[in-house]
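pasting for ref
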Amino acid sequence: MRKSLFLVGTLTAALAVGACNGADDRAAPGTDPATAPAAGSPGAPGAPAAAPVDPRLAAALPPGVTAQMVTEGQQLYATVCVACHGAAGTGTQLGPSLNDQNWIHISGEYDEIVNITATGVARPREYPAPMPPRGGGNFTDEQVRSIAAYVFSLSHRG
């Protein structure tokens, strides 16, 4: 039974990551591909709208982290991370909740979230499938920092 759940989880994760990585990156008709936002990026057609950042949360962000990073991170999170960690970081059978103070591999500090997002989790302790580096997405270092800002905001709401 455990082996079959592991296989189902692994296949589901692979399909979710593959679907996101296989997204059509062509620009919409009538747009310049050199200036059009990449699929799944903020401002791209179909990109989810981000909720405004609570001013109290913005005041509690680590040095160098801005409300704008949280907003961008929320949009980027919705393109890949949501498949395993759920909407608003609620967790799924494939990945842990990110909206509480219960961390499995780190203590939840911003720099640790940046690092684990960038490097992934090759051997998760409690979940069936590994988290690939950058969640399997094609994120820049700056985008990884924004995703980490959003994840930090989920778990540090006061």
